[in-house]
Amino acid sequence: MRLFSCDFCHQVVHFDNRQCVSCGHRLGFDPQLMAMYALESAGGTQWQLVGRPFETRVFCGNASVDVCNWLVNPGDGNFCVACRHNRLVPDASTPDGVRRWQRIGQAQRHLFYSILRWDIPHPDRAEDPQGGLVFDFVDDQQQPDGTVTVPMTGHDEGVITIRAAEADEVTMEFVRASMNEHYRTLLGHFRHEIGHYIWNKLVRDAGCSEEFRSLFGDEREDYTIALQCYHMDGPRPGWLENYISPYASAHPWEDFAECVAHLFHIVDTLETARSFGVAIDPPGEGEEMAAEVAFDPYRASSAHQIADAWVPLSIAINAIQRSMGQRDTYPFIVSPSVFPKLDYVNRLVRACANVKEAS
């Protein structure tokens, strides 16, 4: 995620900021221009973009509960390009519901930033009734007998379900520990599940299964049985050499979705490092451990270019986390056999259209 600046006073601002801490101007993100803008009231619900005379916007309807800071062109509907995909949302009449929705919305906007940068197709359900992208953020349901029905996070033909309770840190950590996972976040859920959606749109529906199967395996393998085997027996032997994560070894679909999620993780983090001018050059480690992100990660020519910058940076980030007594931010190893998979995903998303510049 890149850094932005206030158009009025040039103070550095961040993607999730609502107000400039220097000049006090209200801020909003314009997904068409891929930029944060300082705003001045234009009367009623309309706001004028500072530095762009006569251009007005309105806030996404979810700004009313401080869930979203994205902008919409007047007359283009009530919701922004991300929120218009939402079907079920947490109960905004309760403080817990609003808090969960705010955290979920933050992760969703980070997902959509990458979708928009790569220009990945994202028709909604009105545009594509059978496979359009839609999100259900589902609360746990207490049954009359006192038991609790827990919704499963997952994907089904464009419908991405996220368990809203995992927006609570205690619940998220409990699930992570009980499933013996090293990494589990809301943003990780979004990025993994969008991987299944991307497979539907850019592999299956595009009739491009041959190269996919040569890298990931035959997805026609029984999915239910494969997951049962994974949960009973654990990851495949030798998974560390052939997969990006243990779960990726469960089935070709999960391998692909995990590679998509990791590409999103890596590229967005590299863009953040580039924005801050981060360079890694530890003494005595040799050139292979030196890295500077001197390229736009969203325009990377190959997974090797991405990995050459990412491996040293991720090692440094993990070392910093350990210095603070925290778990590794990126507790994974990108083995050489995974590079062709990441390269395939990188080529797939870059082929969607011209990569959009972040203004």
UniProtKB/TrEMBL annotation:
Signal peptide annotation: none
Gene3D superfamilies to which the protein is assigned, alphabetical: 3.40.390.70
Pfam families for this protein: Peptidase_Mx (PF15887), Zn_ribbon_DZR_6 (PF10005)
Keyword RNA-binding (UniProt): no
Keyword vocabulary terms for this entry: Plasmid
Domain Zinc-ribbon: start-end pairs: 3-93
InterPro entries (alphabetical): UCP012641, Zinc-ribbon_6_bact
Protein name: Zinc-ribbon domain-containing protein
Species whose genome carries this gene: Sinorhizobium fredii (strain NBRC 101917 / NGR234)
Lineage: Bacteria, Pseudomonadati, Pseudomonadota, Alphaproteobacteria, Hyphomicrobiales
